From TrEMBL:
<dbReference type="InterPro" id="IPR015422">
    <property type="entry name" value="PyrdxlP-dep_Trfase_small"/>
</dbReference>
<dbReference type="InterPro" id="IPR024169">
    <property type="entry name" value="SP_NH2Trfase/AEP_transaminase"/>
</dbReference>
<comment type="subunit">
    <text>Homodimer.</text>
</comment>
<keyword id="KW-0032">Aminotransferase</keyword>
<comment type="similarity">
    <text>Belongs to the class-V pyridoxal-phosphate-dependent aminotransferase family.</text>
</comment>
<feature type="domain" description="Aminotransferase class V">
    <location>
        <begin position="15"/>
        <end position="360"/>
    </location>
</feature>
<dbReference type="Pfam" id="PF00266">
    <property type="entry name" value="Aminotran_5"/>
</dbReference>
<dbReference type="GO" id="GO:0019265">
    <property type="term" value="P:glycine biosynthetic process, by transamination of glyoxylate"/>
</dbReference>
<dbReference type="GO" id="GO:0004760">
    <property type="term" value="F:L-serine-pyruvate transaminase activity"/>
</dbReference>
<keyword id="KW-0808">Transferase</keyword>
<dbReference type="GO" id="GO:0008453">
    <property type="term" value="F:alanine-glyoxylate transaminase activity"/>
</dbReference>
<feature type="modified residue" description="N6-(pyridoxal phosphate)lysine">
    <location>
        <position position="199"/>
    </location>
</feature>
<feature type="binding site">
    <location>
        <position position="351"/>
    </location>
    <ligand>
        <name>substrate</name>
    </ligand>
</feature>
<keyword id="KW-0663">Pyridoxal phosphate</keyword>
<dbReference type="InterPro" id="IPR015421">
    <property type="entry name" value="PyrdxlP-dep_Trfase_major"/>
</dbReference>
<dbReference type="GO" id="GO:0005777">
    <property type="term" value="C:peroxisome"/>
</dbReference>
<dbReference type="InterPro" id="IPR015424">
    <property type="entry name" value="PyrdxlP-dep_Trfase"/>
</dbReference>
Length: 383
């Protein structure tokens, strides 16, 4: 009965060239294998303070209320919504792929009055369209900066100002774009920003940086009702992360100690490399990948180069092929993950992610080689 668990653990090496998780560099893997210390030890607080500094840099913010969630990107999504919205309040969600759909569902579940601004996958929102929706009087407006299910990078300049004018908080998801495409939390007047550990940051999945500015803090700490989640309540989390100015940091939950070690190391790598260099590299490798894909006769799903997400590239499914078959072939023969669409983009696209540590021309060549091989071997016989 126990034979399976008694076998030694086996984990294959995979090229993680999908939309996440991405491969983790040895230095980050090593940091996660350090001995465990207590989550309330002074050394751990110091590591958490370092993480906070690293997030400040990565987000380009000086917000005191900056922490990492004990959980994946979804934990940050729920934390943002649960803390800043009360049941019955209006929120507006921009939906042009799965991420807006998810945030709308999260807001619906906690009893918010959800309004949706919907586009087909690949579409982006103009500031004029966003301006019009003040009529719903939302307390929160959500937008995905890197819409990884469609491969779109949504421009965010000016939207923070529109939200301010309408007395609405601006919430931006950068799980798939942080480190790959420029974002300036403070300069762009973003009130709440979050990301995940396992995409361009190249840490293991399971932690998620999030930051709230003073406007967001004012809203979330002046509510009439308690947030529906105890685990994600920012009153407790801000104390755990030493953001509330109190001398005593009380036990709330046990943070993922190894995950925080790894997150610290991945933020350190980004700081060493520099954001500008990381953005430049993603753009350069993405452009190289686009050329290679076009040389294979494939069609990029987002026609406008400037709207493509540099970390996750989407291609239209080539005529005469079954995308599932191609992906299975690529995994089987190249030990490489690429993926299909997600949510509304299923059946429309295939996705190739070259993020952070994986973002190299040599990896683009590997991905192109695997795709060329699949194109040769997976063509449907017209029976
Ligand atoms: C991957 C992703 C998420 C979800 O992150 P998890 O870590 O899987 O919970 C959210 N938003 C975007 C844009 C993503 O790409
Ligand atoms: C900001 O955070 C520090 C700890 O990092 C804390 O000591 C300080 O009181 C905080 N400031 C405010 C205004 O909460």
């Amino acid at each position: 009965l126990l034979t399976c668990i008694l076998r030694p653990l086996e984990v294959p090496y995979r090229y993680l060239f999908g939309p996440g998780p991405s491969n983790v560099p040895p230095r980050v893997l090593a940091s996660g294998s350090r001995p465990i210390i207590g989550h309330l030890h002074p050394e751990m607080y110091e590591i958490m303070n370092d993480i906070k500094k690293g997030i400040h840099y990565a987000f380009q913010t000086e917000n005191n209320m900056t922490i990492a969630m004990s959980g994946s990107g979804h934990a940050a999504m729920e934390c943002a919504v649960f803390n800043t919205v009360e049941p019955g309040e209006s929120v507006l969600i921009a939906i042009n792929g799965i991420w807006g759909e998810r945030v709308a569902e999260i807001a619906e579940r906690m009893g918010a009055n959800v309004h949706k601004l919907v586009k087909a996958p690949g579409g982006h929102f103009t500031n004029i369209e966003i301006e019009k929706v003040g009529k719903h009087k939302p307390v929160l407006f959500f937008l995905a900066h890197g819409e990884s299910s469609a491969g779109l990078c949504q421009p965010v300049d000016g939207i923070g100002d529109i939200c301010r004018k309408h007395n609405c908080l601006f919430l931006v998801d950068t799980v798939a774009s942080l480190g790959a495409a420029p974002i300036f939390m403070d300069k762009q007047n973003i009130d709440i920003l979050y990301t995940g550990s396992q995409k361009a940051l190249n840490a293991p999945p399971g932690t998620a940086p999030i930051s709230f500015n003073d406007r967001a803090c004012h809203k979330m700490f002046n509510r009439k009702t308690k947030p529906v989640s105890y685990l994600f309540d920012m009153t407790h989390l801000s104390n755990y992360w030493g953001c509330d100015g109190k001398a005593v940091r009380a036990y709330h939950h046990t943070g993922p100690v190894s995950g925080f070690f790894a997150l610290r190391e991945s933020l350190a790598i980004l700081a060493e490399k520099g954001l500008e260099e990381s953005w430049r590299k993603h753009k350069e490798v993405a452009a190289y990948l686009y050329r290679g894909l076009e040389d294979l006769g494939l069609e990029l799903f987002i026609p406008d180069k400037d709207l493509r997400l540099p970390s996750v590239t989407t291609i239209s499914i080539p005529e005469g092929y079954d995308w599932r078959e191609m992906l299975v072939y690529i995994m089987k023969h190249h030990q490489m993950e690429m993926t299909g669409g997600l949510g509304p983009s299923i059946g429309m696209v295939m996705r190739i992610g070259l993020m952070g540590y994986n973002c190299e021309k040599t990896n683009a060549d590997k991905a192109l080689h695997a795709l060329a091989d699949a194109l040769k071997n997976c063509k449907k016989s017209k029976a």
